[in-house]
Specification:
The structure is a single chain. The protein has about 250 residues and is mainly alpha-helical. It has a single domain, classed as MetI-like fold (Orthogonal Bundle), CATH 1.10.3720. It is built from 11 helices and no strands. α3 packs across α6 and α8 packs parallel to α9. It is globular, with a radius of gyration of 22 Å. About 30% of the residues are buried.
């Protein structure tokens, strides 16, 4: 029997988010200080105002571009490293400590070093974010390779399946759940790191705007910019990632 889906139905998601919004309304009402915690209505007004002025779309696109570029680099290099370590025990023994070191270096340190070594530019910003995520992707994919069904791999070797065919029909289908997990976690973490990168050394983006309005003590603007990008990530999660994951893992529920 097929396992129950881990995806939440749309009505459940809508009600859950509405409940979270209600908690926000109550907290703002109890606080009764818009300068500390403005209500959803005020934040929405600011978001609409900034969108009409063109500021919000401009800075959101700058952040989204960095997120997508850093995410693509982290996934490609993480996939290659993770699969390589998973398939080669000797390589894993030698390079596993490197991953442990990369996982434990604070993201802030990597960002500062990239800015010092490369300069305050887009290359440094994207490189810093990609480096922070690559090790996490590699570890996840390495464990995915270790969790693969060895009998399927033995069957592929017994039938002398070519390398590309083995990768396509044996390895990748079993790795899709781990790729999906890396994708979901990657986007969630990368965009937060991108905000720090923009906060420290960029002249545009959501993080730059948060830094600007933090200095002006404008809580409503900080929430408007940050929650706008959170909304975009929710659309990607429920409208794209979960759909792709369902299709990629359909064979497991057949």
């Amino acid at each position: 029997m097929a396992p129950p889906s881990s995806q939440s139905p749309a009505p459940v998601v809508a009600v859950s988010l509405a409940a979270l919004g209600l908690v926000w309304v109550v907290a703002a009402w109890l606080g009764n200080d818009p300068s500390v915690l403005p209500g959803p209505g005020e934040v929405w007004r600011i978001a609409v105002q900034e969108t009409a002025a063109g500021e919000l779309p401009f800075h959101m696109w700058a952040t989204l571009r960095r997120v997508l570029l850093a995410f693509a680099l982290a996934m490609v290099f993480g996939l290659v490293i993770g699969v390589g370590l998973g398939l080669s025990p000797r390589l894993n023994r030698w390079l596993s400590p490197w991953l442990v070191v990369m996982l434990n270096i604070p993201a802030l340190v990597v960002i500062v070093l990239c800015y010092l070594w490369i300069g305050l530019n887009e290359v440094a910003a994207i490189t810093a974010v990609a480096l922070n995520k690559t090790a996490m992707v590699a570890v996840t994919l390495r464990e995915g390779v270790h969790a693969m069904d060895r009998q399927l791999s033995d069957m592929a070797r017994a039938y002398r399946m070519p390398g590309l065919a083995r990768l396509r029909h044996v390895i990748l289908p079993q790795l899709w759940p781990f790729v999906a997990a890396s994708t979901r976690n990657g986007l969630a973490i990368i965009w937060k790191i991108v905000l720090v990168v923009e906060f420290l050394g960029r002249s545009n983006g959501i993080g730059f705007q948060i830094h600007l309005y933090f200095q002006l003590f404008e809580t409503g603007y900080v929430l408007a910019y940050s929650l706008s990008f959170v909304a975009l990530m929710l659309v990607l999660e429920y409208g794209v990632l979960q759909v792709l994951e369902a299709r990629a893992t359909r064979w497991r529920r057949a």
